[in-house]
Amino acid sequence: MTTLDPAHLTLAPKVLLHDHLDGGLRPATVLELAHEVGYDGLPVDDAAGLGRWFREAADSGSLERYLETFTHTVAVMQTVDALERVARECVEDLADDNVVYAEVRYAPEQHLEAGLTLDEVVEAVLRGFADGERIAADRGKTIIVRCLVTAMRHAARSREIAELAVRYRDRGVVGFDIAGAEAGHPPTRHLDAFEYMRANCAPFTIHAGEAFGLPSIHEAIGFCGTDRLGHGVRVFDDIELPDGVDLAAHSFTGAKLGLIANIVRDKRIPLELCPSSNVQTGAVTSLAEHPFNVLARLRFRVTVNTDNRLMGDTTMSKEFGLLADQFGYGWADFERFTVNAMKSAFIHFDERLAVIDDVIKPGYAVLLGSG
Ligand SMILES: O=c1[nH]cnc2c1ncn2[C@H]1C[C@H](O)[C@@H](CO)O1
Ligand SMILES: [Zn+2]
Questions:
Q1: Adenosine deaminase domain spans which residues (predicted)?
Q2: Architecture of 12-358 per CATH?
């Protein structure tokens, strides 16, 4: 069996469902764009130092302070050229990490400061993704990137953004999301947007159960009817484990699930777990305390995600590496998480199946030493 060293982790095919476009810029690109557009608010003026600054500033243990770092990335993403470039580089970086399918999200309403319309923002990003896919293909990497449009939960444009998602659904936008500070902004504030999505048979995910606990997950499922949970990590609050159990154990017999935990598992609601980000925002106190392994072993539909590659100084390979070190996972585990993610994607069933059968399974067969 091939070992799980960083080079082999990079080779493994990966699927990414939860990655923010404005949380994944290259530090050098932030600097160059700031220079081009005359943004003078950056705290550091060299690429390595700026990368470190984002990581450290986001390491606050508070979602609110974590979110403040986005002021700088959003400030430099206000023109068609900048949006195209950031989207193109995002695809190139994911392809370099052997991500084979990704859904990348951002909030179009945050990119209107220089006069662009919502449609112009979406079209620029979609062009950037398509360019990135072509560049990756020229380098021998096949990657499919689709878009989720996010509404900010403290704002009041969610219905408009849901309409945008539906308007662009045949052109690369595959779903809708809400993000931003969770406490004080429950998902039910945006019920009309979710109802609009459901009425149009269009899928959505909701950031829930990150900074706020079970009530948020309950609302997202019971009232809003979400198809997936962004993070959802606090579903763990509804699971009672026998005293003294090791969170890295292989089985959790005797675990007792409450109503919310059961419904998440019964309905196979995918959890978009983001290990590093969950530690940075204080959703969990440390990776060792992360319920990823408990949820995986209890057969929840867990998926591995980056959330924000810039703020976390992370990649999918790094997240896999952290989980392997913490919980002792091997290739068969990562294949399962990757298939879980692909099954949960917002593209059509036949398209999901093609990636699983033609790309993921053959890729892991090689790593497992049997193909
Ligand atoms: O982990 C997160 N939780 C809530 N909101 C988030 C998270 N990561 C990024 N965001 C916000 C900040 C971005 O500006 C916005 C759209 O991508 O989504
Ligand atoms: Zn997120």
A1: 13-361
A2: Alpha-Beta Barrel (3.20)
